[in-house]
Amino acid sequence: MTQIESPKVVKKKLFSPIWLLPIVALALGAWLGIKSIKESGVEIQIHFPSATGIDVGKTLVKYQGLTVGKVKDIGIDDDLKGVNVKVMMDYRAKPFLNKETLFWLVTPKASITGVEGLDALFSGNYIAIQPGKGNAATFFEAERQPPPMQIGSEGVMIELTADKLGSLDVGSPVFFRQIPVGSVVSYRLDGNARVIISAFIQEQYARLVKKNSHFWNVSGVKVDASLAGIKVNTESLASILAGGVSFSSDEKAAAAQNGDSFALYDSETSALGGVEVSLTMNDGNGIDKGTRIVYRGISVGSIQSKNLTTTGVTAIAKFEPEYANLLTSDGRFWLEGADISLSGIKNPERLLTGSVINFLPGTNANTALPSSFALQSSAPDLLQAKKRLLTITSAENMGLTAGAEVRYKQLPIGQVLAVKLTKDLSAVEYQLELQPEFASLVRSDSYFIPESALSVDASIEGVSVKTRDLATLTKGAVSLIPGSNNTPVAANARLSLFSSVEEAKQFFERQQRLYFTLTSQDGADVSQGSPIYYKKMQIGRVESVNWQSKTEDFAIKIAIDKQFQPLMQKPKVFWRNSALDVSASLAGIDVAVAPLQGALKGSISLGLLENPLADPTASLKLYENKQLALAQAQAIRLTLSASAKLAAKAAIRYQGHQVGEVTQVKLNADLNTLSATAYLYGEYADHFSSSDAEYHMVEAQISLAGIKAPETLITGPYIGVLPGKSKQKATQFQAKLVESSYANVAEDALKFTLEDSNLGSMKVGTPIFFRGLKVGQIDGYSLSSQGNSVLMQAHIEPQYRHLVNKTSQFWDASGIKVDVGIFSGAQIEAGSLETLLAGGINVATKETTQANNRLSQGAVITLQHKAQTEWQEWAPAQ
């Protein structure tokens, strides 16, 4: 029978994957459309005066060399006053298209200062853009000229104000010491009164412009011709052609900021200042602009201008900055020309150069200057003025004779009246006469130096030769150095004449130094002039080194410079420096090299203490080295047997702790003893400088029991020390070859003496055992006074002393004891391995320790050769 299958119903799909293709195509088309619209650019319109140099489809819009647009169309504006240029800007430039954005046409332009828009010469004209602020805009008015450079972080933009532009132009250089450091970027009128010139200073030179900088015009060539002569002034060839600005600055002033404004002067003389004063006169005969103001033949200023007033003529005189200090309220001016008489012509050169105005400073330096000075027609009577007499001294004559000039800044201010020896014939004395107007220059710290007619300064850089006038060669001359304080010199005071400024500085430095005297056991390898260092910087020097016979040491006088005197108020120590100090240990090698000057002449170092001791003389000691100084060590002397194996730098130890060190060991003349110089560290010195302190040698001792002081096998022998109890202090001690008995025994230990017929195998350190436990040891031994026995000093530790009393028995437990008999046989007795190798003593106690049987300190007990059987059975409760 045939079976028929049931029909299968398949549900039709609502969405077919084939529809994904048109959906993706639609999305991609939409994205491309939106992207095309977004990146289609922004169309703007720029109004230019003309279309010259602008081509459709060719002229580009650039920002800092990057193309951001292109000219699309050019059309004439409605009022026929220009053209409208349509530009398609890159869509990314849209944020910069604001109301204050500027556009201008860049074309090649050649001038004396160079070629502007050089890139346009090869690529063609282009429109430049400078982004601005404000609301978005699409219409712009083109600039006729490129806008001035914007203020930015690179460099400094400043403004200069002047009455006229002169020969300056955009691109004119700005000089500093004849080096171009910037340029003029724009200029404009400030109303109808002033010209504002914008200048840009390059970033690397921006620090040169200060708040008080002075600027002046150096354009072209300045020619100043008068009867006084012809003066030609120019900055450089570039400034002649293109104009320029120069400036000077005070290094200590604050730096200028962007936008700071400065005055632009016509000349350097006007810019750098000086002091202006008014001169009043009845008429202006013989006076013109440029007339010199002269003091003792030196031009100190000139007339700037003269004007007619209701009462006469007023002239403005300007003093040069370096001579401005000569002006005083009682200064005098008078007109002087050539003087023709029967005896001849005085100042004949003035027949050609014209008259000059002579000036005589006054003495009222602290009074304010008046509003004007009267120009006198004749010279004042200088002979009526009271001159200042001075006395100066020097160690020897500096080549001066009577009549030699006294000068200040190369201006004559007086003369030498007399040269003679002092009354005690120890120095040379000079009588000086100064003009009254210069009396105020002499102060309490003033001094004089002689001038040389010929001075030669030769160095690696070259040779400098300076000469003076003939009078300096024949009579000599002396210069006044005023000093720095305002204290007037006393009437009878004597000032000094030094050979040079350097010698004078050294003299005054010595006057201000702080002096100390250090004590040393030797000369410390220093001499006069040896440097003193603090952290490798020189802070002073050694003045003298003297032997003191009373104390048998050296006194080293040192001087500390003034600026380092605060260091001397702190806890401090001094130590000598070695030219080469090598310190070797298991930790490594430390090499210290002194500075070259200190290595050649010897030197001293200063160090500050963090934890100073109470010793007030510590700061006046000169220590052997830095370690001893910082430890504030105390010097001692040790005397030892010549057989002692002691070397320099050996340690001084107490119970293994270093408390000092040996610095020097030498064999005495008797050839039997050694003398050692040692130091105790300051914090321990009080304990080990008592007169009863004990010093002894410590070196390795090898035996069957082991090695005593094994560290000395590497470090070498050292000095052991035990503190004393005496309050009396000492600095010299006798050191023993071995430590004394009971040296390291506790005070409350039980000390006693064991007596035997001979020493046997006993030695220092032989242990004493109680039931196999070490309770004490042998501390020393010696022959009895009669020589018939050996006395062994021993002790029992404090915690075990109650185990021993008068009923105790001590016997020798060293080695192996063999007792052989014919009938009894052989008996062998041996202790522990330690006693077998190194020896030992056993002790047994019969009765409990009580007050009546307690063993006293120093008791003498016989040492038995062997133990009885019953002794080993004793076991009292203690």
Question: What is the general shape?
Answer: flat
**What is the number of strand segments?**
63
Kindly estimate the percentage of residues that lie in beta strands according to DSSP: 35-45%
Provide the residue-averaged pLDDT. Answer: 80
Please mark out the parts with pLDDT under 50 across 5 or more consecutive residues, or reply none. none
> Rg, please?
52 Å
- Amount of helix: under 10%
Number of domains: 7
Classify the secondary structure makeup into a structural class: mainly beta
Oligomer: single chain
Output the strand order for the largest sheet.
Answer: 5-8-2-3-4-1-9
In whole angstroms, the N-to-C terminal distance is 124 Å
Count of separate DSSP helical elements: 12
Could you give a short account of the major beta sheet? 7 strands, mixed
Transmembrane segments: 14-34
Pfam families: MlaD
GO cellular component, one term: plasma membrane
Domain Mce/MlaD: 41-132, 156-227, 274-362, 390-456, 634-724, 751-824
